[in-house]
Prior knowledge:
By secondary structure, the chain is an alpha/beta fold. The chain has one domain: Glycosidases (TIM Barrel). The chain contains 13 helices and 13 strands. A hairpin with a 3-residue loop joins β7 and β8 (292-296). α9 (183-208) runs parallel beside α10 (230-253), α11 packs parallel to α12 and α12 runs parallel beside α13. The relative contact order is 0.15.
Amino acid sequence: MSGFRLPDGFLLGTATAATQIEGGETNHDWAEFCGRTPSPIRDGSTCLRACDHWNRVEEDVALMGELGCRIYRMGFEWSRLEPGEGRFDEEAVEHYRKELSMLRAAGILPMVTLFHFSLPLWLSAQGGFETERGIAAFARYADFCARRFGDLVESWATVNEPNIYATIGYLDGKWPPGTKHPMGVAFRVMRNLCLAHVAAYKTLHGVLGPSARVGFAQHLRCFDPATRAPWDVLAARYIENVFQTASSAALCTGRLSAPLGRGAPYGEGDFCDFFGINYYSRDMVRFSVHGLATMGTPPGCEKNDLGWEIYPEGLERVVRKAHAKCGKPVWITENGTCDAKDAFRGDYLVSHLARIAKLAAEGIPVERYYHWTLMDNFEWAEGESARFGLVETDFGTQRRTVRASGRTFAGIARTLGYDEP
């Protein structure tokens, strides 16, 4: 690995999601989903255990300090704060205020994600984001959070990966609500999540003023044609548009385009203060008469434990494209790899941060990097089997152990550089 230097003022930290680490909460759709028989979770585990972070906040904040984190992207569990429609829980408010205060005292700036895939059961029963009722509910929730936490939250990510949520939950049926839906329903969910972001952006700025920093976390991939055949090229362009280009534009501007709709139902404007990118891999696209396209990996490529290609160049590509389209600072809100043996995570980290250093040297405003994730967690349909953490979690004992890749991260976080061994 070659060495690199990140610019002065660059911030590094980690990212988590409430449902994946907190444990103990039964009032959301993921808890209901995990309890189905047979289990839809690969290893039969449940988010009710996760990392018990709800009871171990102090320990985990100390871990972040040990890793040299200057920033932390966390989530609020919507169902804890609003257990019934329009009814908010003061004990949950005090818990999150305490956590935010701990982070601040440790010199760690907290970003809060308002929606990271889990719905309160009362909203799930109403169809969630399948209807515009979800948008109104989310705007109310954002207003409450702005008023109760605005003095402690440094930045906000309204929604996480509307494209992934709609695709896996509604097209594939592997996440709640747990059944496959027609493509039109998935696009409607994606549309409503983009509009929910617009509504929440307006709400947060309306309460907190123009100095608030509000964005989103959008999953971006590289989609390359498997061959030079024109049908593969066109298939790759089509998949990229329907998966991420149209929704990215809607998140930034409020304007809808195919396949999400048309017009700007909540107004057209400038609805992000930063463009948050979650990047992991790329897909090689091949046209298929049976399902439009199939996705795969290049022959002989390096892969992680889940079979995803390790492709650092892709991070550079998606950052360039996002900045060219949006013109706003770019924050890497997630980037990491599944590596149970910690055999290649350190190299993955170095190779991806080297791409960021290159972009920054060219003047592209990549300002932050949030590694996914702090510690092994409940990784959605993969359960506890997919290990993404800089810190190893023993789920049975809840013991945390910093991995070698975590020590690599800590060195980079403290020096803003890496020297080739």
